[in-house]
Amino acid sequence: MTTSTIADSISTSPAAASAEPDHDARSLPSGGLQNVDLHCHSLASDGALSPSALVERAVEKGVTHLALTDHDTTAGLDEARAAAARLGLVLINGIELSCIWRSQTIHVVGLDFDDDQPAWRSALARQEDNRWQRARLIDHKLSHLRVEALLDKAIAKADGDVPGRPHFASVLVEEGVVGNSAQAFKRHLGAGKPGDVKACWPELAEVVQWICDAGGVAVVAHPRKYKMTATKLRSLMKDFQSAGGQGMEVLTSGQSSGDLGFLTELCRREGYLASRGSDFHFPGAPWCELGRLPALPDGLEPVWQGFSAFQPGT
Ligand code: AMP
Ligand code: ZN
Ligand code: FE
Ligand code: FE
What we know:
The chain is of the alpha/beta class.
């Protein structure tokens, strides 16, 4: 998808603006400041930038350690790694896996896994099949909108790869069915709407297992985005932990200070590992920029502390 298409497709900012730009305030041995961003997207899923352009932008924005976490694919990692090596940024293997917990779609970020393990590769191949199956179902569920060749147009938006909901949203905008992408989600693709097809996703415990088996760490992405009550979110985190999950994103873009306080308290009390990720998709959204998040609150254990790239001597 082109930059302009994505930027055009999402026209409203979230109600709560992100906190002031910051860095995570730890010094590097080189004397510079460390800035860890463990959640972002490239053209390999629904982001607007190629993996190398994304890494270049991350460096410009002062990010020192980046995980590229495309939806259900690691296809962008090789290109991102080459760019990172060229520009002196540390790239951590990442992915954002879609799954189901109590009939709700949950996103689990996998970090620092071995991307070459055969069992992991076959799990990702199954997940790609799941995404294709879901794309066909979305096409079917939205047939009442009478957009000719909707699926083909969504595939074209994804440059021939499997289309996600933002690609469908972009077609609906282009065809004049809705005025903008936010409307497309509100009416047709968002939670509870016909195009919100969840039937294809594996269970939460299964994707956590995939990540653990590949030597990685599983993190619940943007916990407040699921609009759960505090009690339900605690249950989610308990089930996630029982499945082998260890981390939660305490810092994500567009989060209110109330949400940050709640997540900080939950993370600290239950002893989860804390993650920091912008969920950057495209340039031009001031509330969501690579590396532009506050420092992790005191008393939390950073998820990245155990990563190989953070061990002394590496
Ligand atoms: P998918 O993996 O195909 O279900 O797409 C998930 C992506 O859709 C998210 O990462 C966002 O980029 C986008 N998305 C989800 N909900 C909304 C929404 N309500 N408005 C705009 N974009 C959304
Ligand atoms: Zn996305
Ligand atoms: Fe997500
Ligand atoms: Fe994401």
